[in-house]
Design a protein that fits this description.
CATH class of chain B: Mainly Beta
CATH topology of chain B: SH3 type barrels
CATH architecture of chain B: Roll
Strand content of chain B: 25-35%
Oligomer: heterodimer
Bound molecules: guanosine-5'-diphosphate, magnesium ion
Number of strands of chain B: 6
Radius of gyration of chain A: 29 Å
Strand order of the largest sheet of chain B: 1-6-2-3-4-5
Strand content of chain A: 5-15%
Radius of gyration of chain B: 13 Å
């Protein structure tokens, strides 16, 4: 009897949902040790004892109120799609805070099972949880798990099946509020059940009543479609007003406090404090890395070693691969020439093959080390610390510390960085963050900066370009902050304990990110190369060169043919350097024939002028065409403007 | 955690001044009882949901230099609040029994 089941994983950020998800489905999903990064829901399927189970990993949230889009998405998913079971993943080492979320799931009257995860970590902190007692208190099954080792996962699945089959009958906890609140909840409930009978089939009536009492904007909005909605809303608002007068707090604060009160009571009753926690290595690390003075040199060192690894490691690997592929390509070419006409061979070798080789020898050597380093940073829990340290500085550009995380991502690839801006709370924050993030030179731009300026002009000049970029980010960010309307939001972020990164997690994460990169980037690289070969054959290249000539030679002081790599660089920025080499070659020149000033100007323009096609697509998806185009226009305008200025300024100062 | 609660009560009795101050005026390692979070509906609500409810004990773990963010412990969890946010949380300072 092949049975179809749907289960959802829900819980706070950073409790181990994604690790459990991976354990269950074997599918790779991004997991890490910083809050809020499961930004898209992930789905997977598994087979267990004749059942087909569809699993969805809901984003990590702290509550089911309407502070963020993710919370609304999650609670709508739970109430509207009604999965068979919700697995509420709970962090045993922070039970109180996690149970607050459980209280809300119970209020939604969702069929839940608690996965009491990270019991190993709790034990390390000297905390032991009485599982049976917790299960009794909540009235739902509780299964202890250690997601990273996979222990308890099978029991979890068996419990899911048993619950669906009705073998696990338990009466789940129904929370009662204080008398004054309860009285009002019940009155609203009564009114709602008669006036909003249809809405009450989707959401539990009691839950609607509580949310209305809490002045929940989303639920209030749902009432607009009802004839008598206004009446119910008015009554609820009156009730909330009375409560607020009595307590001197806004109504959600009152109900939240009560929910927390119960969560605390249960947590205290089931937690056994075994050994007084001693100062561990993790705590010492924590103290150093967030130290008000020491923290900054450490942060600088972490970032510097990351770049050193990417640049040195990348250069080394890249050079090696280059050599190997050089031989390989020549061989393939000679073989093909035996039985194919020259044009076809050109198309294959210069188009497809050159594209793949460029991707492998240029993009991957820089991208993979970056992803490994990033995975370690994420898994250890360092990123929120960096956010903490950088909060002050980020406020200067209207953002808060968390925006530093996508900023770091930006040095790898702008696409995940752009998507990573979702960790910001409001639309305005997300847009501002994305605006500065695309200005950060990604690995592909790094190839140009280091491969051209670093190699032929000097490393110090290349580093100066990076420094200049940061200043530019700061200035443009500040201008954007002043222009874009709205109030800045402050930093509120959980600081997870340091953990030793798990090797398996890092490998899985690096692998899945690299795979995504290859899927997205390689087709574009290959198509891009083909287009260039075709354009070259059709003479379009010459046309572009002539058209762009005044801008190139008069304003930027570059040879006119350099417009080609800049235009086609939009397809993929790491192509820029290869193309530059190619077009110069056609003119009988090599890279070294460019003057230092030309190299710097070229690298500068490449660094700023436009995010690549994939990034534009990501921006469009996140913010719509209007804002994506706004970002692009500003970038192009600034790149050309600054390129021209740099040409004039450098020509004067670097005159030899 | 039960242990901590017992300590709360004693500490509350021993508290030196009943003055309410902003969270930002607590020093590193100092404790306080939250009295109220000010600010907009959304902010107050978010803080409450992160566990900063009236009457709860918090401890300042760390403060960044130059009016930077504040890291505090609340309900067994470490939380970082930007300076602007932290300055909207009001607390009654507790005298640390360690120096008694
Ligand atoms: N010690 C320990 N660490 C865990 C366990 N489960 C997850 N982690 C770690 O907790 C962090 C957050 O996990 P993740 O699945 O990304 O959390 P999510 O935000 O809920 O999806 C990662 O660094 C995991 O390695 C566990 O059972 N024990
Ligand atoms: Mg996750």
């Amino acid at each position: 009897m092949p049975n179809q089941l749907r289960i959802a994983l829900a819980g706070n950020a950073n409790v181990g949902k994604s690790v459990i998800f991976n354990q269950l489905t074997g599918l790779n999903q991004i997991v890490g040790n910083w809050p809020g990064k499961t930004v898209e829901r992930a789905e997977g399927t598994l087979h267990f004892k004749g059942h087909t189970i569809h699993i969805i990993d809901l984003p990590g949230i702290y509550s089911l109120s309407t502070f963020s889009m993710e919370e609304i998405v999650s609670r709508d998913y739970i109430s509207i799609e009604k999965p068979d079971v919700i697995v509420n993943v709970v962090d045993a080492s922070a039970l109180e805070r996690n149970l607050y979320f459980t209280m809300q799931l119970l209020e939604l009257e969702a069929p839940i099972i608690v996965a009491l995860n990270q019991v190993d970590f709790a034990a390390k902190k000297g905390l032991k949880i009485d599982v049976e007692k917790l299960s009794k208190a909540l009235g739902v099954p509780v299964v202890p798990t250690v997601a990273i080792t996979g222990s308890g996962i099978d029991e979890l699945l068996s419990t899911v099946i048993a619950t669906v089959n009705g073998e696990q009958k338990r009466k789940s906890l129904k929370m009662r509020y204080g008398r004054e609140i309860e009285k009002r909840v019940q009155a609203i409930e009564k009114l709602a059940s008669s006036k909003l009978s249809q809405l009450c089939t989707v959401y539990p009536t009691r839950w609607i009543a509580i949310k209305l009492l809490e002045r929940d904007a989303d639920v209030a909005g749902k009432l607009q479609n009802y004839e008598n909605g206004k009446e119910v809303l008015k009554f609820a608002e009156k009730s909330a007003g009375e409560l607020e007068k009595m307590h001197g707090e806004s109504s959600p604060v009152i109900t939240t406090s009560e929910r927390y009160g119960l969560a605390t009571k249960i947590a205290n009753a089931v937690t056994i404090v075994e050994t007084p926690p001693r100062v561990s290595l993790e705590q010492k690390l924590d103290a150093w890395t967030t130290h008000k003075f020491l923290g900054y040199p450490i942060l600088a060192m972490v970032l510097a070693s990351m770049f050193a690894l990417i640049f040195l490691g990348g250069n080394f690997i890249s050079a090696g691969l280059d050599y190997v592929f050089g031989i390989f390509t020549a061989y393939i070419e000679s073989v093909f020439l035996l039985f194919l006409p020259e044009i076809a061979v050109n198309l294959i070798t210069d188009g497809i093959l050159a594209g793949i080789v460029a991707g492998i020898t240029i993009a991957l050597p820089y991208i993979v080390p970056f992803y490994i380093f990033l995975a370690i940073l994420e898994d250890s829990g360092y990123l929120p610390r960096a956010a903490f340290l950088m909060d002050n500085l980020m406020h200067k550009i209207g953002l808060h510390g968390k925006a530093f995380i996508p900023l770091i991502l930006g040095y790898g690839c702008s696409v995940p960085a752009c998507i990573g801006c979702r960790i910001m709370e409001t639309e305005r924050e997300r847009f501002l963050a994305a605006f500065v993030v695309v200005l950060i030179p990604c690995a592909a731009r790094t190839v140009v900066i280091l491969g051209l300026v670093g190699r032929f002009v000097g490393l110090h000049v290349a580093l100066a370009l990076y420094a200049f970029d940061l200043i530019l980010v700061f200035i443009l960010g500040r201008i954007a902050f002043k222009i874009v309307p709205g109030e800045p939001v402050g930093l509120i972020v959980e600081m997870p304990s340091y953990r030793r990164p798990s090797f398996r997690n890092i490998i899985m994460k690096t692998w899945s990110r690299t795979r995504d990169f290859v899927y997205v980037a390689f087709p574009i690289i290959i198509v891009g190369s083909l287009v260039i070969v075709a354009f070259d054959a059709l003479g379009v290249i010459d046309y572009i060169t002539v058209a762009a000539s005044p801008l190139m030679s008069d304003w930027l002081g570059l040879p006119p043919v350099t417009s080609i790599p800049l235009v086609f660089g939009i397809l993929r920025k790491e192509l820029t350097l290869i193309l530059l080499q190619d077009v110069l070659l056609q003119q009988g020149m090599v890279l070294q024939d460019l003057t230092s000033v030309q190299m710097i100007v070229f690298a500068l323009v490449t660094m700023i002028y436009i995010p690549c096609l994939a990034t534009i697509a990501a921006c469009k998806r996140e913010f719509g065409w209007k804002r994506a185009i706004a970002i692009m226009t500003v970038d192009i305008a600034f790149a050309l403007f600054l390129g021209g200025l740099a040409y004039r300024f450098l020509s004067l100062t670097m005159l030899t | 955690m039960r242990f901590r609660n017992r300590r709360n009560r004693r500490a509350r009795g021993a508290q030196s001044n009943g003055g309410v101050t902003s969270l930002t005026s607590l020093g590193e390692g100092e404790k306080g009882i939250v009295t109220k979070a000010m600010g907009g509906f959304g902010l107050v609500r978010r803080l409450t949901e992160m566990g900063i409810t009236p009457g709860i004990e918090i401890r300042v773990l760390r403060k960044c230099a130059f009016h930077g963010p504040v890291e505090l412990e609340v309900r067994g969890v470490a939380l970082a609040l930007g300076y602007g946010v932290a300055s909207k949380v009001f607390v009654t300072p507790l005298k640390d029994e360690a120096d008694a």
